[in-house]
Automatic annotation (TrEMBL), chain A:
InterPro entries: AP_mu_sigma_su, Coatomer_zeta, Longin-like_dom_sf. GO terms for cellular component: COPI vesicle coat; Golgi membrane. Oligomeric complex that consists of at least the alpha, beta, beta', gamma, delta, epsilon and zeta subunits. GO terms for biological process: intra-Golgi vesicle-mediated transport; intracellular protein transport; retrograde vesicle-mediated transport, Golgi to endoplasmic reticulum. This is Coatomer subunit zeta. Signal peptide: none annotated. The keyword Protein transport applies. It is found in: Cytoplasm; Golgi apparatus membrane; Cytoplasmic vesicle, COPI-coated vesicle membrane. The coatomer is a cytosolic protein complex that binds to dilysine motifs and reversibly associates with Golgi non-clathrin-coated vesicles, which further mediate biosynthetic protein transport from the ER, via the Golgi up to the trans Golgi network. Coatomer complex is required for budding from Golgi membranes, and is essential for the retrograde Golgi-to-ER transport of dilysine-tagged proteins. The zeta subunit may be involved in regulating the coat assembly and, hence, the rate of biosynthetic protein transport due to its association-dissociation properties with the coatomer complex. Pfam families: Clat_adaptor_s. The keyword Nucleotide-binding does not apply.
TrEMBL record, chain B:
Pfam families: Adaptin_N (PF01602), Coatomer_g_Cpla (PF16381), COP-gamma_platf (PF08752). Keywords: Cytoplasm, Cytoplasmic vesicle, ER-Golgi transport, Golgi apparatus, Membrane, Protein transport, Repeat, Transport. GO terms for biological process: endoplasmic reticulum to Golgi vesicle-mediated transport; intra-Golgi vesicle-mediated transport; intracellular protein transport; organelle transport along microtubule; protein secretion. The lineage of its organism: Eukaryota, Metazoa, Spiralia, Lophotrochozoa, Mollusca. Residues 628-772 form the Coatomer gamma subunit appendage Ig-like subdomain domain. Residues 1-22 are annotated as: Disordered. Belongs to the COPG family. It is a peripheral membrane protein. The keyword Membrane applies. InterPro entries: ARM-like, ARM-type_fold, Clathrin/coatomer_adapt-like_N, Clathrin_app_Ig-like_sf, Coatomer/calthrin_app_sub_C, Coatomer_g_Cpla, Coatomer_gsu, Coatomer_gsu_app_Ig-like_dom. This is Coatomer subunit gamma.
Length: 212, 888
């Protein structure tokens, strides 16, 4: 136990950087986002996009995410200065959404991107913003992230527009092209999957209400 | 409950994440399915998602693997499934950095880009630009131009953003797209407008006039996009900054007008820009502050009524505002805000409360300190280390601003020391206490007591040794030194070797300084001689033997005043000595002395500066001389002058904006002075050759050698040296040298730098160079001046009284004396306590040749000026004479 404590203190020592309160003027540039990421409730990466060389290696990126998660998963403050960066975040059930920018960046711009990101994911997951649903629709989530921000430039900050561009798959295969067996198999599967999902989400909700 | 927990556990093991245990090789294997026909979009989409997932997890994929997967992926263009196609684009972008021959997809992407499916066109453009290199850019240029002005916003945005990415590499091609970008700014779509403005600025940013026009044009025509506004504000702010203009600039009017914009983002950006501008006055600042003030108070009704979501947003706004206020350089304008800040100090969000309090601490007055400190102490444990450091920095500035409040502040710092925290945080507190102790005599005892308590339970070796060193220095001079010894000896019993060694040194200092404690200290040190660690044992044995001699001079030289040579210099000298073994013992006097890092204390007084630059600065100051030594040793003619004694700081001997810019640095050796002239040729149509500085020596000095700078081209600094022998008469040390820069000029073409064949001799008169007493002495800090004074003894003592009639204050007199004599003020005697009319200044150092030199100047202020009684002690009679006459 003691050993653990010591380790923890060493970790914080390495990562504490003093905040530069003097913002300074930003070089005019449309590149405003350094990273966006979604973590689960253990701080594991589900999606991460880094747009510049602040964290050049995967190892540094993961270390940053871990530390960021440790700092933010308990407090619901929505904004934090961390390692000299401004991070805005939002969480729901077991997902944590982060948008990271320079400490001099306009926080409201970062927040607008975060909200666009969250809202579009929420629409894609039909308001069911949790890890399981996210993983079921990971393709659409990747596409949404791609429509949100292109290499650090905000591409679209309106969640409706993002969802429209992602154009999630509704019943896409025309019925005529399927055999009867396929249809029964598919719908049977879907029905049972749907029941499962309802049960699972009810279970989750009870669980979370108990755990909180 | 139990079963629920188990259920959760199972889920965490990966049951909930179908992507959890993916193997890179299996997934890439699966990617071969892409080659099958007909394509099953759902299945392939799934596999492609897996590929994207493992890339996203940071898995590194080799070039061959990536290329293989990439080519398999290109097969998927046969399917028309929209999701699958879009995933392919993503895949292309990810792989484009690793795989080979990615341009193979160009034609497929160009087809999509110009095709009928609007949904594909934007993403296809972006994917295309990620695989395109500059040689290919020509062929797609026409399509890009069309895309920029396309009526579908997504297409236009994609083209503009891609142009920006491409523009990072070369400006040339995208410069030709300026008309299209201009047209796109007028788009109805907010994002297109933003991207077009970004591109337009990027193309024109090197042309200041064009940028100026750009801002004035778009500031009149109201843009729709708040992002575009923010960008425009930043461009305008940059222009103001570059032109060094103030609020009279039309750019400023534009920024100011943005304070009335309807979007909070824009208002905040404008306020932020105004606050950050350098030349703003309180009047310019007022509207920005009042807007920020509004942000501060507007959320309050919302706080009462609205849901958590709105509440968080309100916090965020306030946090921004507070951050600005902390950074602000205009306290007067901030005072207006203080009332609003008062309401925030009890805020539930601790970050905001901390910022509010530190802001108030920085701008408030002495009476509010107690109340604010009490408030902040209630939640110190809840805030992160970063913010705690902010608080400590605020306290540090308070300590110097309100010395009378040291009681409250010290107690608070001590409390913080006891709490949990990382190394940086603890170090900041300890530094803060140490500065306070050094600046404020009254705070000394309390501060030392807190530090003693801290080392009882300190896990950081660096901090413990630092504090022990401080205790050894300051402790013996307190009224009751004995009480510190217990704390120090406890370290000897309980700590690791490094701390034990530091503790032993500290105890020895008590023994050397306080006669009544000498015997007890010797007993303690004798016990340490049985230590398991070599270093501790060695130190103890050494100190015991020195102390047992009971000679003040010995104790002073070997215990109280530590090693005064530069460590780098010592290392080099010892290395040299081992290379050329000789009969003569190693002479410590041949080692250059450590220069006092002068800037150290001053930097401390400015909290909030970028702290990371501080250590590097100190380090440079400390080793500057070592750098010079190395430089001089490179010049063969100057290599055998012996050890470098002192290098002066650079002095300009020309005006800075003349044809030739010359700086002079004086390097003092035992019998020589080397004048180093750093010259810069500021004329681009001239090339100088064989540059020397001819010097007219003062009496007794003799110029031995000129070492010319062979070539001096435009704007490339070069160095020439002049070697001068010092007079043999030991008391003759000062003089003035007239200097002339001599050189051969060759005219040359300003563009190519190609010089003419023939040149002509020319000269240029420089300002005179002075050699003063200060050039012959090196500053040395004697922590215990009285002991050193006794150590040198009265043998070569000289005393004289001067009337300094042209000085009106003691401070002025002290500054001048230090400047003339060039010695190090000891025991903080360069600071005069307020309201005193008499003061004693202690100066210490070493004269050229390794002679210790000490000066005591008793100063008294009366109506006719300052009267000074100067006493000089030295190990050499001539040195005393030189120093005593230095002021005259």
């Amino acid at each position: 136990m003691n050993f653990n404590l010591l380790r923890a203190s060493i970790d914080t020592r390495r990562h504490v950087k003093t905040i530069n309160m003097d913002g300074g003027l930003l070089e005019p540039s449309p590149y405003s986002i350094k990273a966006i990421t979604i973590l689960d409730n253990d701080g594991n990466r589900l999606l991460a996009k880094y747009y510049d060389e602040t964290f050049p290696t995967a190892k540094e990126q993961k270390a940053f995410e871990k530390n960021l998660f440790n700092k933010t998963h308990r407090a619901n403050a929505e904004i934090i200065m961390f390692e000299g960066l401004t991070c805005v975040y939002k969480s729901n059930v077991d997902l944590f959404f982060y948008v990271v920018g320079s400490s001099m960046e306009n926080e409201l711009i970062l927040a607008s991107v975060l909200h666009a990101f969250y809202d579009s994911i929420s629409q894609i997951l039909r308001k069911n913003v949790e890890k399981r649903a996210l993983l079921d629709n990971l393709d659409a989530v990747f596409l949404a992230a791609d429509e949100l921000c292109d290499q650090g430039i905000i591409l679209e900050a309106d969640s409706n527009a993002i969802v429209q561009k992602v154009a999630i798959r509704n019943e896409d295969i025309p019925l005529g092209e399927q055999t009867m067996a396929q249809i029964t198999a598919k719908y049977g599967q879907q029905v049972s999957a749907a029941t499962d999902r309802v049960l699972q989400s009810a279970k989750d909700q009870i669980k979370w209400s108990l755990l909180k | 409950m139990l079963s629920l927990k188990r259920d959760k556990k199972e889920e965490e093991d990966g049951g909930g994440n179908p992507f959890n245990n993916l193997e890179k090789s299996t997934v890439l294997q699966e990617a071969r399915t892409f080659n099958e026909t007909p394509i099953n979009p759902r299945k392939c989409g799934n596999i492609l998602t897996k590929v994207l997932y493992i890339i996203n997890q940071g898995e590194s994929i080799g070039q061959t693997e990536a290329t293989e997967a990439f080519f398999a992926m290109t097969k998927l263009f046969q399917s028309k499934d929209p999701i699958l196609r879009r995933l392919v684009y993503l895949g292309i972008k990810e792989m484009s950095k690793i795989a080979q021959d990615v341009i193979i997809v160009t034609s497929s992407l160009m087809k999509d880009m110009t095709g009928k499916e609007d949904q594909f066109r934007g993403p296809a453009i972006r994917a295309l630009c990620s695989v395109t290199d500059h040689s290919m850019l020509q062929s797609i240029e026409r399509y890009m131009k069309q895309a920029i002005v396309d009526k579908v916003p997504a297409v236009s945005s994609a083209a503009l953003v891609s142009a920006l990415h491409l523009g990072k590499g070369s400006q040339e091609v995208i410069k030709r797209w300026v008309n299209e970008a201009q047209e796109a700014v007028n788009s109805d779509n907010v994002m297109v407008q933003f991207h077009a403005l970004g591109l337009l600025y990027h193309i024109r940013k090197t042309d200041k006039l064009a940028v100026n026009k750009l801002v004035s044009k778009f500031s009149k025509q109201s843009l729709k996009s708040p992002y575009a506004y923010c960008l425009l504000i930043r461009i305008a702010a940059k222009l103001i900054e570059e032109e060094d203009a103030g609020s009279e600039s039309p750019m400023f009017d534009f920024i100011e007008s943005c304070l009335r914009h309807k979007s909070e983002m824009v208002i905040y950006e404008a306020a932020h820009a105004i606050v950050q501008l350098k030349n703003t006055t309180a009047k310019d600042l007022a509207p920005a502050v009042s807007v920020l003030q509004l942000f501060c108070s507007s959320p309050k009704p919302t706080l009462r009524f609205a849901a958590v979501r709105t509440l968080n947003k309100a916090y965020e706004l306030m946090l921004n505002v507070l951050k600005l206020l902390v950074a602000i350089k205009h306290p007067a304008a901030v005072t207006a805000c203080n009332l609003d800040l008062e309401n925030l100090i009890t805020d539930v969000n601790r970050s905001i409360a901390t910022l509010a309090i530190t802001t108030l601490l920085k701008t408030g007055n002495e009476s509010s300190v107690d109340r604010l400190m009490k408030q902040i102490s209630t939640f110190m444990s809840e805030i992160s280390d970063e913010f705690k450091i902010v608080v400590v920095q605020a306290i540090r500035s308070l300590c110097s601003k309100f010395p009378r409040k040291h009681n409250v502040l010290m107690t608070f710092l001590a409390q913080m020391l006891r709490d949990e925290g990382g190394f940086d945080y603890k170090k900041e507190i300890v530094d803060c206490i140490i500065t306070t102790i050094e600046d404020n005599v009254e705070a000394k005892e309390a501060g030392l007591a807190h530090l003693c308590e801290f080392i009882e339970d300190c896990e950081h070796t660096v901090l413990a040794t630092k504090i022990l060193h401080l205790l050894g220095r300051e402790g013996p001079r307190t009224p009751s030194p004995s009480k510190y010894i217990r704390f120090i000896y406890n370290r000897v019993i309980l700590e690791n070797a490094a701390v034990r060694a530091a503790a032993v040194s500290a105890i020895a200092k008590f023994g050397a300084h306080c006669d009544d404690l000498l015997n007890s200290c010797v007993v303690l040190l004798e016990r340490c001689q049985l230590d398991t660690d070599d270093e501790v044992r060695d130190r103890a044995t050494f100190y015991v033997n020195v102390l047992k001699q009971k000679q003040k001079a010995l104790s002073s030289a070997y215990i109280l005043n530590g090693l005064q040579v530069s460590v780098v210099g010592l290392e080099r000298a010892l290395h040299q000595y081992t290379l050329e073994p000789s009969e003569a013992p190693f002479d410590l006097k041949s080692v250059p002395l450590a220069t006092q890092p002068i800037a150290e204390q001053k930097v401390r007084d400015v909290p909030g500066e970028v702290p990371s630059s501080k250590p590097t600065q100190d380090k440079v100051a400390a080793s500057r001389q070592d750098v010079y030594q190395e430089q001089l040793a490179q010049v063969p003619e100057l290599a055998n002058l012996g050890a470098l004694f002192k290098s002066s700081s650079p002095v300009e001997v020309t005006e800075s904006e003349t044809e030739y810019y010359v700086q002079c640095i004086k390097h003092t050796f035992n019998n020589y002075i080397v004048f180093q002239f750093d010259c810069t040729n500021t004329l681009n149509d001239q090339q100088l050759e064989r540059v020397t500085v001819e010097m007219e020596p003062a009496e007794g000095f003799e110029v031995i050698k000129y070492i010319p700078c062979p070539l001096l081209t435009y704007n490339k600094p070069g160095t020439t040296y002049t070697l001068v022998r010092l007079p043999s008469e030991p008391t003759q040390v000062t003089g003035t040298f007239a200097c002339v820069l001599k050189f051969l000029v060759k005219d040359c073409d300003p563009q190519t730098g190609e010089p003419d064949e023939d040149g002509y001799d020319d000269e240029y008169v420089l300002e005179d160079v002075e050699v003063s007493v200060a050039d012959h002495v090196q500053k040395v800090m004697k922590p215990n001046f009285a002991a050193s004074w006794e150590e040198v003894g009265p043998e070569n003592e000289l005393e004289d009284t001067y009337a300094l009639s042209n000085m009106s204050t003691l401070e002025e007199a002290i500054t001048n004396i230090i400047q003339y004599i060039g010695l190090q003020p000891c025991e903080r005697s360069d600071k005069v306590p307020e309201g005193k009319s008499a003061h004693t200044l202690y100066l210490a150092g070493v004269f050229r040749g390794g002679h210790d030199a000490l000066v005591r100047a008793k100063l008294a202020l009366d109506t006719s000026g300052v009267t000074m009684q100067l006493t000089v002690r030295s190990t050499d009679p001539h040195v005393s004479e030189v120093l005593a006459t230095a002021v005259a």
